[in-house]
Design brief:
Blueprint lengths: L1 H9 L10 E4 L3 E4 L4 H11 L19 H16 L6 E5 L6 H13 L5 E5 H11 L8 H10 L2 E5 L8 H16 L3 E6 L13 H5 L1 H10 E5 L5 H8 L8
Parallel strand pairs: 3-6, 3-7, 4-5, 5-6
Antiparallel strand pairs: 1-2
Helix pairs in contact: 3-4, 7-9
């Protein structure tokens, strides 16, 4: 029995055959999943997931209508199929339907697979970039943006929330085009719809521009989520909830 145990312990990983690297179709190699368990705590810390959303998981997202069931299905599919895809998700819907919950749940699941992920509220990212312009700042625009460009999977929450000034438009374009050109998966959430529910409401195009809206549709599967305030419904149903936006 000891000999059998020894052989099992020495058997190379079937994915990397002991090299520490596994092949990814069309993308070369990546660190093997056998190393993921050791890297998970560091990757999770580096993902910058806000404490409010720490308990978000796909398993505790409770869909209340068909659009939310579809959104959950696409989220699970991305987790299952990554890295054999290079298309992200664009969650569109009003406040409180679970967009942020799903986005965070996806990157948590991917981190456990050894994937480097990063979460940013787009408003916070723009503020950090602006602060880097201060002459006394200890950082630079390049240092702020480097992890945004380098993350294998990025969540940009609240896209379009900022007033669409020329600088905001240029910064959005720079970030999104960089990830598009590198074929890196990005997950976006926005409260602004392609087809607003009420006449006079601003559209996604109004907030990000025609060209960027087209680019988003090219690099993401658009997932429209409808419904009443998810947090209130879940609370009434007696479920525990966290970070459902």
């Amino acid at each position: 029995m000891l000999a059998e145990k020894s052989r099992l312990e020495l058997a190379p990983c079937p994915h990397c055959h002991g090299t520490g690297w596994e092949s990814v179709e069309g993308k070369g190699v990546r660190p093997c999943r056998c190393k993921a368990a050791n890297r998970t705590p560091t990757l999770m810390a580096n993902a910058r997931i806000p404490r409010r959303y720490e308990e978000c998981e796909l398993d505790n997202y409770y869909p209340l209508n068909q659009s939310q069931r579809v959104a959950l299905s696409f989220s699970r599919r991305l987790c299952d199929e990554y890295p054999n895809l290079d298309i992200g998700l664009l969650f569109l819907g009003p406040c409180g339907v679970g967009k942020t919950h799903l986005a965070v749940s996806i990157i948590k699941a991917l981190v456990r697979k050894g994937v480097s992920c990063l979460f940013y509220d787009f408003r916070d990212l723009l503020k950090e970039i602006q602060d880097s312009y201060n002459p006394v700042s200890q950082t630079s625009e390049l240092k702020v943006l480097a992890p945004v460009y380098e993350a294998e999977v990025l969540v940009l929450d609240e896209l379009g929330a900022n007033k669409p000034t020329t600088w905001v438009q240029e910064t959005m374009t720079q970030i999104i085009n960089n990830r598009y050109n590198d074929k890196k998966v990005t997950i976006f959430t926005s409260n602004y719809l392609d087809n607003p529910l009420s006449q006079g409401d601003e559209t996604l195009t109004d907030r990000v521009g025609v060209r960027l809206r087209s680019r988003l549709h090219e690099m993401c599967k658009v997932v429209n989520i409808t419904g009443d305030d998810y947090r209130q419904k879940v609370r009434q149903a007696g479920y525990r909830f966290q970070g459902m936006q």
